[in-house]
Structures are given as structure tokens and as C-alpha cells.
Amino acid sequence: MKIYKYIGVALMVLSLGACKTDDLERDIDALKDRVTAMEAKVDRLNESMNMIRVALDGNKTIQSYTENEDGSYTLTLSDGNTITLTQGEIGATDVYQEVSISTDGNWVIGGVETEHRALAVGGEPGVTPQFRLTMESEGKYYWEVSYDGELTWEEVKSQQGTRVYASASGSSSVAGPIASAAPNATGDKFEITLTSNGTKYEIPIVSGLACAITEPNPEDMENGYWIVPITLPAVTTSTSVDLKGDAVLVSAPEGWTVTAEIGNGTLTIIPPAQDGAEGIITLQVNKGIYWAIDQIKVRSKRVITSLKAEYELGDGFYIGDELVSKETYPGGTLIENGGTISNSGVHFIAGGATIEVSEKLVTGEANCLVLVGNDPNNPSTILFKDVYLENHVQNLLFKNIKLVRDGVSEAYLLKLETPMNKAIFDNCEIQLAAGFIYGGKEVAVNTIQLRGNKVKFINSESDISKPKTNVNFCNVKNLTLTNLEITNNVFWTVSQSGDIAAANGQFVTLKKGDNMVIKNNTFCNYFQNPQGITTILTSQFSLRNNIFYNDGFGVASNLINAQETSQFPESYDAFELNVAYNETGDGKKTSKWNICKSGSTLPSPDYSKVITPEEQSPLQIVDWEKGEFVSLKAGYGAAIE
Questions:
Q1: Contact 166, 141 (CB under 8 A)
Q2: Tens digit of pLDDT for each residue in 398-440?
Q3: What are the domain boundaries of the chain?
Q4: Which of 170, 415, 499, 532 has CA 20 to 30 A from 160's CA?
Q5: How many other CB atoms sit within 10 Å of the CB of residue 115?
Q6: CA 393 to each of CA 346, 369, 442: distance values in angstroms, whole numbers, following the listed order
Q7: What CATH number is given for 210-302 in this structure?
Q8: Among positive and negative, which fits the CA dihedral 269, 274, 280, 285?
Q9: For the residues of 96-110, what is the DSSP string, one character each?
Q10: For residue range 154-172, what is the model confidence (pLDDT) as tens digits?
Q11: Tally: H helices and E strands in the chain
Q12: Which 8-state DSSP code applies to residue 468?
């Protein structure tokens, strides 16, 4: 049998007598008073547990104390916390549940050993149980305990595994966990004696000794850890501290740079470069022979605040699947608000800046044009004023840019009529009055890639009750493309005033696409009519896990218009695993989603399958104007943070 060191804690019970139905109204005020008194006694029990924790750890002192009229003491500890300490009897009860510490250093509640540490081990502090009473039915309460600072609760169980109630009718007084508490005769120590076994603890009273770390803002905390950002260039993170005494010793995990000084109210930290590094920062302040200690758990987290800094100081970053670094794309420059874009090179545009392009931008016959919004949290805008971009470079790369095609002439934004390697758009917002990519000449392109973009079509018609027509997203009918990837994008339509509207057109038109993947996109009121994909397909084609959403417009979509000699994948899942939905309501019209258009080459003779609309909406519409849609169907649609 294990030997236990008992710290007797009475889990108190308030006598709540059963009320007869005809007496309930008369006794309701008394019932409220008893509940209030019960809550106050539970609070005093938890304060006693906190004081026992101070005694067990031995890492705090008392700055000051006051004696209250009811005989309790209010103590201000060296970490700035206050405890109101009650000694002696704490309530009436018939049940006496013991809280003890096992020889293994774990808490034991009511004779049942838990897995929660009472004593610090290996630098990890012990936990402090906190108790509460929860009502099962009127007048009947049971005990719960928390070991994680009241984040989660569990029932207190008896040795038989049953719930421990606090609804006895007896009135015997039971002593609290602390039998006595008072300053000693010389006033330099505060003495507490435990009820269960008479163990006495002395906590020094040291005026002018303080060691308190202020917990950062809640948004900077996660599961008890202070989340410290790793940035390039490295920046310091800080929180307030109260340090009073002769000197402070700082203990930090390997790789962490931590600074704290007496008389300086700030603790500063620079984390290591490793993402997810964890540890405990400990501050120890002494005054003479006495010490006060406080700790905080920390975890590092990689945070990108400047893509140009990632480019210059780090290993670079990716635009789609293309690595952009000083080695792969040298010579990057920063363009401030109101600046101009040259026809080639690597350009970072300041966060929130707007660059106007009022003359047709024709790229040079060079290696690249890379345009990057420098601040990931504040996209930059390129406004094409009634003009477009004509490309001649090998690699055209955009990231974190808002591209706006504005003006009277509703032409395409990007013209591709010369051979090139890659055109990639990553995490951009693309606002279009008509189409996006156009090309009429017979050319070959290796890769067109769109990942994580929001494509907003503007219906500028006077009557927005009808869809705007001929909004052809990618119309390069004579282009031979090796790789096309359109994944995790949102396509939706609004009016000029931001209201719900609709548009339809050809989604992608190519001469031939060898490897085409169009998946996990969300289409809201953008109808693929007269057809969606028009090209010579190969067996590598994939059109799946997309969401097609119609809010009241009766326009049929024809997803595939396969040209002669097309080959379909062996598994029809490659183009049949999509979902569609028609919003219902007064005056709303329904749409139909045909997988293959009439006249298309078919995957099998007489193939005529359509997408059966879902009965429940697969989308949560958060903000239509901003294009904020959340997929409610796992694995389908876009998920853009």
C-alpha cells in the first residue's frame, strides 16, 4: 500500500433542503442566498489551494499583506497575484473528500490517484486543482475539478467511481485545508499550518521583492504557450514584467535570446529560427537571501511579414511551384505607392500600394516579369486603366497582387501570343469586366497555373437580373499547353455596386491541353455556357471536387466540350466528382449542369450524365461582395485563408 502525505481539503457541501411545491415561491430568495454563499465558499477553497501551491513550490515570497475584518488575510505575492486566505471552518457538510499527494508526487482526490503532478519535476511546474459545484437538478450539486487553469473540467469521482455530490442535509462544521494562517511574531514570515497533518510552511515576507511576468494578449497565447513570431529580419517580441530586487537571473531554452533587467518593465525575446521550438523562460530575482521566481512557456512560429525580406535574407519563397530567390530570379527591387512597372525583372510592390498602368504594358523578350505584393497581409494593387498586359517574357509570375481591369473597353487583361515557359498566379485577387487571358496565334506554352486566387467578375449591365454574357475566362483557342492547373480558386460575380449578379462564358478554350487539372474550385454565379472546357483532352484530364453554386439564375452549364480525338480518363470519377446547388426562394430560377455539351466527344456512347444538385447548400455565404465562401462539404470547393 502506498503511503500518502495528506493535505486534507474538505470538499464542502451546502445544505439545500427540499422545498415543497407550495413553499417554493416563499423560499426562492433563501435558495438564491444559499447558492451565493456556496459559490463564495468554493472560491475560498480554491484560494486555499492556490496558497498550498505557493507553499509547495517555494518560489514566491509575499510583498505585503492586510488582515480583513472577517479574520482572513489578503496577500500580495512576489508575482503580483493576490490571494485571500481563510483559515479554519469553511462550511457545513456530511462528506469529507481528501485531497492528498501520493509518494509519486501526483494529486489524489478522494482516495483516487490522478495523473496530474502536484510537485514540480524537470522544470515543469506542478498543477493546482480548482474546484466547482455543478447543478444536476434543483438543490442537488456535484463536484468538478480542473487541472488546467479552468479550461476543462471533469467530475470528482469516489473510490467506487461514482459522482461525488454536495447536497447533504447535515450541518456539521468541517475545517478547511488550512488550519491556521498568520504572520509570525517578528513579521518577516507568514506561517500556514495544514489541517490534515499539522505540517507548517513559512513563506518569507519581503517588501520590495517582485518577479512577475505579465501574460501577453490572449490572441498571442495558444494552449498555455506564448506564441513568439519568427520573422525576417528578426524582430524582438516583448511583454511587461515587474522586477524588484537586487538582481535578476534569466534562464531560457537553447537558441532563445531573452533580456530582462531590474527597473526595466519589459521582457524582450528573439526566438530561434526553428519553427515550433518550445521551452520555458524563467526569471529569478533576489533580494538578499530571498528569491522570487516566475515562468512562462513559449513556442516559436514562422510568420512572413515581408516577401522581399524572405527573398533577400532567407531561402526565398514559392509562386505556385516556382521558387523565387536571389539565385533563381536575381535583381529584385521595391516599388512604392504610385511607382511604375518596367517591362521585365523582379518587382516587389509595397504593401497596400497602388500602381496605375495607363498604357499597354508590353513585356520585353527577357527571362521574366515577377510582380509580388510585399506584405502578405496587405495586398498591393495594379490597376490597368483601359489597357492590358501583352506578354513576351518566358516566365510571368504574380503573387499577392490585386489585378484590376478597369475602363470602357472590356477586353482581356492578359494577351499571350508568343511561346513562353510559365504563367503563374498565386494568391491574387483578379477583378475582371470581361475575360482574363486571350491569344489568337498558334503558340506553345509549358505551364499556366492558378492557385489560391479570387476571381471576381463584374456585371456592369444595367439589368443585373440577367447574366452578363461572353465572359470568357481563358480563351487561347490556338494555344498548345503542356500543363494547366487551376486549383483552390473562387470565381464569383457581383454587380458594380457589389450586389449578387451572374455571368456566363467559356471557361477554358485551348487547342490542346496535355495535363489539365481543374479541382477544388468554387464557382458562384459563373456559368460555363455555352461550354466550360473546350480542347482536345488526354487521359490525364481531371475536373473534380469543384462546387457549382447558383443563386437564382436559370442558366445551363456545359462543363466539357471535348474536341475530336479526345481521350477521357479510364475512371469517370476524374470528371464526375463535382457538386452543384440551386438556391431556392421566391422568383429564383434553377440551373442544370451537364457534364458534356451536346456535340462534344463523349467518354462513352449515349453518355448524358448531369450533376444532381445537392438538397442542402454545400456553401456558407460569409460575404458575397468580398467572395468569402466556406465549403460545408468536406473535400470539395476552395479553402482560401
A1: yes
A2: 999 999 988 656 679 999 989 999 999 999 999 998 899 999 8
A3: 5-204, 210-302, 307-631
A4: 170
A5: 8
A6: 12, 7, 17
A7: 2.60.40
A8: negative
A9: ---EEE-TTSEEEET
A10: 998 888 888 887 754 433 3
A11: 3, 55
A12: B
